[in-house]
Structure formats: C-alpha cells, structure tokens
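Bit of a strange request maybe. I'm writing a small parser for structure token strings and I need a real example to test against, not something I typed by hand. Could someone generate the tokens for this chain?
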Amino acid sequence: MTQKPSLSYRDAGVDIDAGDALVDRIKPLAKKTLRDGVLGGIGGFGALFEVPKRYREPVLVSGTDGVGTKLRLAFQLNRHDTVGQDLVAMSVNDILVQGAESLFFLDYFACGKLDVDTAASVIGGVARGCELAGCALIGGETAEMPGMYPEGEYDLAGFAVGVVEKSKIITGSTIDAGDVVIGLASSGAHSNGYSLVRKIIGRAQPDMNARFDGDRTLADVVMAPTRIYVKPMLALMQKITVKGMAHITGGGLLENVPRVLPENVTAELHKAAWPRPKLFDWLQAEGQVAENEMHRVFNCGIGMVVIVSAAEAEIALAELRAAGETAYRIGMIRARQAGEAQTIVQ
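Reply from user aminoacidic:
Good idea to test on real output. This should exercise your parser:
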C-alpha cells in the first residue's frame, strides 16, 4: 500500500513563517505608539491596559469599524499605505464625539495568502493613525485563510477603546437654539460613500494617474487617508464647553448631525460657508448626483461638526485653527418647526 505524503500547514496554504516575519515587521511600528497605561502589548494572548489614574469616575467608550469598499480601490491602485489610517480614524473619531480620549486600538487583517510587504504597509498605516490619535496599537490578529479571499485581496477591521470622565460625557442634551455649528475640514471622502465613488469612476473611466487637484492625481485624492481630529478636539475640550460633535461618516451631513441633536432643534447649515473640495464637484458632475444626495452620502468637505455656545464660538475657531485644523463657522442651531428635518443644508 502506497503511503500518502505527509502534509504540512504550508501545504494547506498557511505560511507560519510569513506570519512570524510580519510580526517582526509590526513590533517596531507598534512600539512607537506606546503610551502610559500599556502593561502588555503585541505577542501575548491578550493585551493589558491600565485606565489612567487621573480619572475619578472613568467610563470606557468603544467603537469598531472597517474601511468599506475603499479597499477595492486600494487593490485596484495597489495603494495600501493609507487604509490603515482610515481604519483607525473611523473608530477614534467616533468615540471622540462622546468626549473620549483614545486609549488603545486593535486591528484584524484577513487574507487568503499573506503578502508580508502588503500587510506591513497596511499595519504601518494603522500605526500612523494610532500616533495621530495618541492611542496605543496594543495588539491585533492576522488571519491567513486559503480559499476565503481572491488573490491579492484582504479584509480589514478594527476597534478602539477610550475613556471619559463620567461627568464630562458629551451627549448633545444641552444643545439649544442660538448655538453655533463649526465644521472641521475633511481630507477628502474619508472612508464613506465609496460604493458610489467606484460606480462613478467606473462610468467616467478617468486616468487615475493624471493631475487632478494641483499636483495631486485623482488616485491621490480618492485614497487620501481620513483626517483624525482627536488631539485638537481633546485640547479644545480642556478650554471650553463642547456641547456636541458629529463625525460625518456614512449618511453624510444630513444623517449624522441629527444623531447629537435634541428633538426640539434643527441645525441649519450654509454650504456657502465652506469651500467644497474639487473631488465632490467632480463626483457630482460625472455621476449626475442630486445635491440632496451629495449631502446624504458624502461629507462634502466637512469631516467633523462641533457645536458650541455663541459666546465661545470665536474662541473655539481660534483654538482649532491654532492647532492646525481648517475650521469654519458653517451654521447655527434654531428651534425646530413641526415636521422639519433636523439638519438642513441650504
């Protein structure tokens, strides 16, 4: 009887050595993100983190997300160095709106066959995002699963955990008529609306490597990483009372701002108050997208909305600009009329 050959994990399509090589590449990147509180990081079965002792009544805030179909453009354009920052931004900006300081982040990278260079490029972006947010890349998972993903493709997910003093949780409950709406500029489409972006690109068939906006190509513009607003906003919250914030993700301006508003008020936004980046004008023209749909799908140039009292609006604008943010006074809060939408862009 002929003896069957011995099989290994590598024969099944999983390369343990490649996984080890990736961990070696990741460790120095993660080390750069270390902060107070990290007790155990990459390499253990679980990551350990001690809540900072300066919090009297600490409340943990968590958020999880992916990068969506922006990944398909990353595959198509062979650009993998920015989607990791997108991944971090989606979660840390989300927990920021409740007043939370980001503590740590974990990622999940899954593929059919591990390409160490590609994976290291992606995780490098994750580490950059963590540095920008001031949180530690404390662990994660790299899953090589033969037959689950097409060659050259991968999936990406992650989550952040932050902390806020219980008495300082931002709920939006104190927002009232007369308050001012400030918009912080986005770096592009961030990580939302990319199914429509890809549909429009497929119809227009543009040269992705031609100059599009100044020295930047269309590929540069659509793959620009999501802006992370954590450090400037945490600094602002030390100086004034921020009544509410909205991270402008899926649902655009029209569906995200109402999430922080009391039922009795409306946010009236004035689109002439900020310059709309060229990308959104191009998308609207090439896709024949209705104006209302643009504001319902995309951030249209505003990645974070901040609501403050009229008395502190100028202070907020000055502080944010001094911190390097491009900030605009984009609208106001007023009493809501019967049957009226909670956010109006006009």
